[in-house]
């Protein structure tokens, strides 16, 4: 039996579809070669129903599905001899893998419609459980067949629908089929629950970036994990990126830039990213029967009760980062921003407020010329817009002075440099992997040339077999050459990305000598990092109006840990003319500009 674990859903559907088609072809072969057992007997047209519960059963060579087709044919033939009637199967209803407890199935619905229209006079099935595993549903199906005068033929179970004794036998078999299904399900759930409760062991090992399957003495242990240090650095970077940008789309774009793949070597999508961000295996715990949390446990079976388990591999990501990720997910829930690409980061968003507490939010619109995007901070309550560039320039000047003396900011830059180094090393590892693959392909070509180098000559041979071998040989060489070329191109692209990443690094050496330039570089290369720095530096930034001069003012309220540094540079800030140049501001239609000037001040109050 082939496993579906390494196949994508698309590949699974393709295999199932191909198998169903082959079964239909088998049925068509039977129909085209059907002959009556006795030409003097009447012919009765009917159908056969084939169903399997799991996709894996479709992959068994000469497996259960094909057996059901042969059994239906043999049962129709033997029943023909018994009843002195020629039972002819005119259609095979091949159901895709689905549980017997499901009432709605495509092929079963078609079969029941055909029975209702009396196009089918009999139905052949391998066993009772192939139709339903619920006794109530079975009885409904049976009554439908009885009302439509459709005979049900079950292997080794001939019965007369008018005989109460045989109908009782049918009910008993339906009850046993349902009982068997329930017992099997109960055993599986009990086993899974017990393994999870006693050892934190899953019933299968789903691949997850950052975690590998645990091996003990070279033997893989199903359902148990061990941390993968190199991959976990990538996982932590993805989570940090998501928290910084607050956007699924931007995070996916950043992942694509670094050419990061999932554990199964596929490109990240919205579903795989969400699974990574919410998978509790990263914090070393798991919740079983989450839907039953809070219910009365006395009314539940032991294996149905809610259970929180600590996994053996423990927490592998920083708990505070995990909490920040979950908080970001909650914030984005129901928000349009989760489905849109962020073209601009507003670093003062969430900090900028009017004096009465009215919040500003980053926004933008196209100017009248439709050629330039106007970015501004908008306060809907006050119907006020402030040019984003003007406000952010003042914040940049204010922050650069205090941050040059801040240990927290230095640590933040060091962390950024480490992340850049990790990204660079990840790209370097990808390039080395591709180079090793190129070496392997080149060795394949050398081995191929040594074995069949006589075919490289341009001479022609009359021997058609030799010509075919030569063509296959040349095609194989071309294929190897193309794969080598593709990998070399990928290495070149990785090199360009790595050079760009290294060139965007911020030097710690320049921190004390030119803090403004450092903050400017951070704002240019990673505005999300600047936004996080502002959150650590400022409590809030208040917008007010000086009634005497008619100018708007910015008052920066710093957090307590920066209060000692503020007094050292406050004199320099207030001792010079911090009033900005006159700048036009985007206004609400019909409103007059409330000001054209802006001043800045600092405070710890």
Could you describe the 3D structure shown?
The chain has helices at about 10-30, 65-85, 105-115, 135-145, 165-200, 230-245, 250-255, 270-280, 320-330, 390-405, 405-450, 465-505, 515-525, 525-535, 565-575; strands at about 45-50, 85-95, 120-125, 150-155, 210-215, 220-225, 285-290, 305-310, 350-355, 360-365, 375-380, 385, 540-545, 550-560, 600-605. The longest helix is centred in the C-terminal third of the chain and has 46 residues, at about 405-450. About 50% of the residues lie in helices and about 15% in strands. Helix 6 crosses helix 9, helix 10 (about 390-405) crosses helix 13 (about 515-525) and helix 13 (about 515-525) crosses helix 14. It starts with 8 loop residues before the first helix and ends with a strand. A hairpin with a 4-residue loop joins strand 13 (about 540-545) and strand 14. It is of the alpha/beta class and about 600 residues long. It has a 4-stranded parallel beta sheet with strand order 2-1-3-4, with helices on both faces. It has 15 helices and 15 strands.
Quickly list its features.
alpha/beta, four-stranded parallel beta sheet, four-stranded mixed beta sheet, 15 strands, 48% helix, 605 residues
């Amino acid at each position: 039996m082939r496993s579906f674990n390494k196949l994508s859903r698309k590949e699974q559907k393709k295999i199932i579809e191909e198998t169903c088609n082959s079964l239909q072809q088998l049925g068509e072969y039977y129909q085209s070669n059907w002959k009556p057992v006795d030409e003097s007997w009447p012919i009765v047209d009917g159908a056969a129903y084939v169903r399997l519960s799991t996709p894996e059963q479709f992959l068994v060579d000469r497996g259960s599905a094909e057996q059901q087709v042969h059994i239906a044919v043999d049962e129709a033939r033997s029943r023909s001899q018994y009843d002195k009637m020629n039972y002819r199967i005119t259609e095979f209803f091949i159901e895709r893998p689905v549980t017997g407890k499901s009432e709605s199935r495509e092929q079963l619905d078609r079969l029941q419609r055909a029975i209702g229209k009396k196009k089918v006079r009999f139905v052949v099935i391998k066993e009772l459980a192939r139709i339903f595993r619920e006794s109530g549903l079975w009885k409904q199906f049976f009554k439908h067949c009885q009302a439509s005068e459709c005979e049900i033929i079950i292997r080794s179970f001939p019965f007369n629908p008018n005989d109460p004794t045989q109908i009782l036998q049918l009910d008993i078999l339906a009850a046993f089929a349902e009982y068997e299904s329930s017992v099997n399900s109960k055993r599986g759930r009990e086993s899974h629950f017990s393994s999870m409760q006693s050892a934190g062991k899953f019933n299968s090992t789903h691949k997850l970036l950052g975690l590998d399957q645990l091996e003990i003495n070279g033997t893989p242990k199903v359902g148990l994990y061990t941390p993968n240090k190199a991959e976990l650095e990538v996982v932590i970077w993805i989570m940090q990126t998501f928290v910084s940008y607050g956007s699924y789309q931007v995070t996916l774009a950043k992942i694509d830039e670094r050419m990061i793949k999932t554990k199964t070597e596929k490109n990240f999508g919205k579903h795989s990213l969400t699974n990574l961000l919410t998978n509790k295996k990263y914090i070393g715990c798991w919740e079983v029967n989450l839907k039953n949390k809070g219910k009365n446990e006395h009314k539940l079976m032991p294996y149905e009760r809610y259970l929180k388990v600590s996994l053996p591999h423990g927490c592998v990501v920083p708990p505070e980062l995990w909490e920040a990720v979950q908080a970001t997910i909650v914030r984005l829930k129901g928000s349009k921003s989760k489905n849109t690409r962020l073209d601009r980061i507003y670093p003062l968003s969430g900090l900028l407020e009017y004096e009465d507490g009215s919040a500003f939010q980053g926004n933008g619109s196209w100017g009248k010329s439709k050629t330039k995007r106007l970015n501004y901070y908008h306060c809907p309550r006050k119907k006020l817009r402030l040019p984003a560039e003007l406000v952010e320039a003042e914040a940049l000047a204010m922050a650069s002075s205090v941050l040059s003396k801040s240990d927290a900011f230095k640590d933040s830059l060091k962390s950024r440099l480490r992340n850049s180094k990790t990204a660079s090393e990840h790209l370097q590892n990808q390039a080395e992997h591709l180079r090793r693959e190129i070496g392997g392909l080149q060795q394949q070509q050398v081995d191929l040339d040594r074995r069949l180098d006589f075919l490289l000559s341009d001479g022609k041979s009359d021997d058609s077999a030799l010509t075919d071998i030569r063509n296959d040989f040349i095609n194989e060489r071309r294929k190897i050459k193309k794969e080598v070329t593709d990998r070399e191109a990928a290495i070149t692209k990785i090199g360009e990305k790595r050079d760009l990443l290294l060139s965007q690094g911020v030097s710690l050496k320049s921190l004390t000598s030119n803090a403004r330039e450092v903050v400017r570089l951070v704002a240019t290369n990673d505005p999300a990092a600047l936004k996080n720095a502002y959150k650590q530096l400022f409590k809030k930034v208040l917008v007010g109006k000086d009634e005497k001069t008619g100018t708007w003012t910015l008052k920066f309220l710093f957090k307590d840990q920066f209060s000692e540094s503020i007094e050292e540079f406050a004199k320099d800030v207030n001792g010079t003319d911090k009033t900005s140049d006159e700048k036009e501001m985007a206004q609400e239609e019909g409103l007059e500009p409330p000001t054209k000037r802006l001043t800045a001040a600092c405070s710890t109050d």
